[in-house]
Structures are given as C-alpha cells and as structure tokens.
Amino acid sequence: MKSIDNKEVIDFYNSHEDIWPEGDNWHKYTKQQLTRYVNKYIKKIKNDIPLNILNAG
C-alpha cells in the first residue's frame, strides 16, 4: 500500500482554481451559507466530543 505524500496532496489541492469565483453572487451566497452551517455544527459538537471529524466529501 502506497503511503500518502503530504506535499503531493497539498500541491494537488493548491493547483486547482478557486471554486468560489469572484463577482459571482450565487457562489458567494452558497459559500456564506455553507460556512455558517459548518461553523454552527462544529460549535455545537465541540463541547460534547473531544475529537471532531466533519466528512464534507
């Protein structure tokens, strides 16, 4: 089994263009809503569970 090369993973994700295009109000709104939801969820479980994993695949 091949081990994961952290640099290779970082390079892969950094090589893609921004998924939230500047000036696109729909994507701006979507990003804001997703950010609010994720932050609310993390804050809610943060006090209950010592290790938090969000599977946002």
Shape: flat
Distance N terminus to C terminus?
Answer: 22 Å
**Mean pLDDT, rounded to whole units?**
78
Helix content: 40-55%
Radius of gyration: 16 Å
Provide a count of the helices: 2
Query: What's the helix-strand series?
Result: HH
Say how many strands there are.
0
The residue ranges in which pLDDT falls below 50 over 5 or more consecutive positions are none
Q: Strand fraction band?
A: under 5%
SS class? mainly alpha
The largest pleated sheet is described as: none
Explain this structure.
There is one protein chain. This protein is mostly helical and 57 residues long. It has helices at residues 6-14, 25-46. The longest helix is centred in the middle third of the chain and has 22 residues, at 25-46.
Question: What's the SSE blueprint?
Answer:
Blueprint (H helix, E strand, L loop, with lengths): L5 H9 L10 H22 L11
Task: Supply the key terms.
single chain; 57 residues; mainly alpha; 2 helices; 54% helix
In short:
This protein is mostly helical.
